[in-house]
Amino acid sequence: MHVISLLGMSKVIQTPMLKIWEWMDTFKAYIPTKTIDQIIYFEIEAVEVLTFIKEKLEEKYDLMEIRQLLGKTFLKSWEMLS
């Protein structure tokens, strides 16, 4: 299993850590994480999800639209992997 720290994720998707925490609060059901020793890490799939959120916010989608798109795009593909 590969995981990424908040700092690592910030560097990978070129977004401030505080912004990622805000997205975590808003979209936590869609962002795969793993807690290890009371520290939250991102699963590797979170790169794609957070990049998607970042792109949609840059395109001026509102939060509800993004939430709906995440449900259609990512939850279905994760169900197929299970």
Give the total of beta strands: 3
Shape label: globular
What integer value in Å does the Rg equal?
12 Å
CATH architectural arrangement? Orthogonal Bundle
Q: Helical content, roughly?
A: 55-70%
Largest sheet: 3 strands, antiparallel
Question: In which order are the strands of the major sheet placed?
Answer: 1-3-2
Q: Taking all residues together, what is the mean pLDDT? A: 90
Text of the CATH class: Mainly Alpha
What class, by secondary structure content?
Answer: alpha+beta
Which blocks of ≥5 consecutive residues have pLDDT under 50?
none
User: What's the number of helices?
Assistant: 4
Give the CATH topology.
Multidrug-efflux Transporter Regulator, Chain: A, Domain 2
Report, as a whole number of angstroms, the end-to-end distance. Answer: 15 Å
**What's the helix-strand series?**
EHHEEHH
Q: Work out the strand percent.
A: 5-15%
Topology at a glance:
Layout: E1 3-4, H1 6-13, H2 17-27, E2 33-36, E3 39-43, H3 46-58, H4 63-81
Antiparallel strand pairs: 1-3, 2-3
Question: What would you say this structure looks like, in words?
Answer:
The protein is of the alpha+beta class. It has a single domain (3-81), classed as Multidrug-efflux Transporter Regulator, Chain: A, Domain 2. The protein contains 4 helices and 3 strands. Strand 2 (33-36) and strand 3 form a beta hairpin. Helix 3 (46-58) runs antiparallel to helix 4 (63-81). The radius of gyration is 12 Å and the shape is globular. The two termini are 15 Å apart. The mean pLDDT is 90.
What is the gist of this entry?
Helix content is 62%, strand content 13%.
